[in-house]
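NAD(P)-binding protein (Mytilinidion resinicola), 356 aa
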Amino acid sequence: MGQNILVTGAAGYIGGSVLASFVTRTSGPINAASISAVVRSEDQVQALSKLGVNVIQVDLSDEMALNEAVVRNEIDIVVHIASSIDSRVVSHLITALGQRRKASGEEVFFIHSSVAALFATEGGWLYGEVKDTDQRFEKEKQIGGPHPVRETNILVTEHAKAQGVTSLNVVVPTVYGRGSGEWRKLSVNIPAYTRASIKHKIVYKFDKDGSPPAVHISDLTALYALLVEKILQKEQAPSGEKGYYFAMAHRAPWWDVMQHLADALHARGLVAEPKVQIWPSDEMAAEYLGFPLLYIRAMCTSTGQLVPVNAYRLGCQPKWDEKRFLESMDDEIRAVQELDKVKDTVFDSILPSSRN
């Protein structure tokens, strides 16, 4: 097969870090591949062009432009990180890959990015503990909609199969740590809490504790790289209905996280006291954090009984654990102070009604 890789969301936190991980390799199959990156603006084109990759400015909702980008650049592997909820983009990319497969006669691959909160009770999951080797796809279909992430997951598997495209689905949990991309370098959750705490001089937590799965950005990018390497080396990896990968390294005990954050902020003189208060309401939390109210419980109080198996079987070895994570809160605060310059657009595609 060819070695042409396309990364979407390449100006984002995760996508940019994945791209950086790919282009900084000095050996191995990814180093020998041709890499293209999709961005939305001319400023992002300028920022990423220095990396020596083929930067494509395209509106992902433009089916014809997206199809042309995939076919003209002879893309064999799409690493889709731009959105987990926009089924139109997923459909366009997979259809274009199907055309590429017919033209080349070679296998093509679509690596999707989903979210772990979908497999928690707050996200509508009804079946308790779940391994990524279980029959999650059939259970997702049984639950059905309306949930844009679940509906997109189902579409990925079904549409890829119909188009002759091999699909893999990386289920992304809470991500933390400094990004290594050229544009957006901050994650979502902890920076949001940090901004709100500094602005209002107080740290809040929800009335319900949660312990969601979590992963450091460097461990997450290592998983994406591992999957792409397996593909390039023509090694077998679970795909399709069996191709889910829970990108979980450890859990994030949220009340403990908030206490560590409060201690670190107070030590810097950024909050009035190290005591963590309960949010007076979900509405206030959504407003202060900038999260959509419709999903705030799933984002901030969920736990989920996820058990990662597939990634570890392939050789994934995370370097960060819970203890190291909790001890890194001062680094998270410093990152916000130094890097909080790019507007967070992660929720721009969610309906406005979900914010209020």
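Residues 4-175+215-246 form a domain with the Rossmann fold fold (CATH 3.40.50.720). The chain has two domains: 4-175+215-246, 186-212+251-303+319-346. ok done for today
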